[in-house]
Design goal:
This protein is of the alpha/beta class. It is built from 10 helices and 9 strands. Strands 2-1-6-5-7 form a 5-stranded parallel sheet. A two-stranded antiparallel sheet has the order 3-4.
């Protein structure tokens, strides 16, 4: 990717969100444009009342199209709760485009005819509705810039890179409120550290996001996740205890709900 252009009614909101930390070092050509610059009349109107019954204003197709026509060839994304969920996989695909145009809308969204004629893809940042597309656009662009700025090594072990959640991290002090750092991390044995971290990744993913494990390929073989977890349970007392606590919490939660009925 070489360039990102943002089209929004509040482009500064997005530019500001992207001006902190590691991502501000980006070398991508970044453009933040205000859709109102293509607005109609003295008041630069960009919206119109929805023709469907019920309340709601929409961003006009002709205004958005006028803006887009000045921007040249690009892959056009509209941020929308109806879009494809944003994932690490989706990011990898988007990064391949030379020029990305990200449209953040407001009101009830954009006139469908503009979406049909000009938008390559709609992207959602989650199953909830925000008041505007600026924060979703900032989320998408932050994730793109971070991947672009950081080295492959820096992101290799992170959550979702290999289909698993990340292992836990620790720093000084060695003893915090009677909790110590797992001894394998201080052992200097890299093979052991890698093995334990992998176990932690599997466990965290299994406990928190079992949906991610459905297609996860353990040791290059598409295998049933239950087997490695059985092995973990047997071999590692600490993890076994955590699994037992988790299973107990589930049972208690189920009982509480049953008693409430
Ligand atoms: N009427 C729309 C619906 O129900 O799908 C919601 C419109 S929302 C109030 C206004 C704009 O915020 C959307 O058009 C979109 O650009 C943005 N937006 C809100 N939630 C979003 C989400 N979860 N992901 C991506 N964009 C979102």
């Amino acid at each position: 990717m070489k360039k990102i252009t943002v089209l929004s009614l509040f482009p500064q909101m997005i530019a500001e969100a992207l001006s902190y930390g590691v991502i501000k070092r980006t070398e991508l050509d970044m453009q933040f444009l205000n859709l109102r610059d293509w607005g109609e009349g003295e008041f630069k109107r960009v919206d119109g009342k929805s023709v469907s019954p019920g309340p709601g204003m929409l961003l006009r197709a002709d205004i958005a199209a006028a803006a887009l026509k000045e921007l040249g060839a690009a892959y056009v994304v509209h941020m929308s709760p109806r879009g494809t969920p944003l994932t690490a996989e989706k990011l990898k695909q988007l990064i391949k485009h030379n020029h990305l145009i990200v449209i953040a809308s407001r009101y009830e969204g954009l006139d469908q005819r503009f979406i049909d004629n000009y938008v390559d893809e709609e992207i959602s940042i989650g199953d909830y509705v925000l008041s505007g597309g600026e924060l979703p656009a900032a989320v998408l662009i932050d994730a793109i810039l971070r991947t672009e700025v950081l080295s492959e090594d820096a992101v290799a072990d992170e959550s979702f890179q290999e289909g698993l959640l990340e292992y836990p991290h620790y720093t000084k002090p060695l003893n915090f409120e009677n909790k110590t750092i797992p001894s394998y991390l201080l052992s200097g044995n890299h093979a052991l550290i890698n093995e334990k971290r992998y176990t932690e990744q599997l466990l965290a993913t299994w406990l928190r996001r079992p949906d991610l494990l459905r297609d996860y390929d353990i040791c290059g073989i598409k295998s049933d996740i239950k087997n490695p977890l059985k092995k973990i349970k047997k071999e590692n007392m600490l993890l076994k205890k955590r699994l037992q606590d988790f299973e107990k919490a589930i049972r208690e939660n189920r009982n509480v709900r049953r008693n409430q009925r």
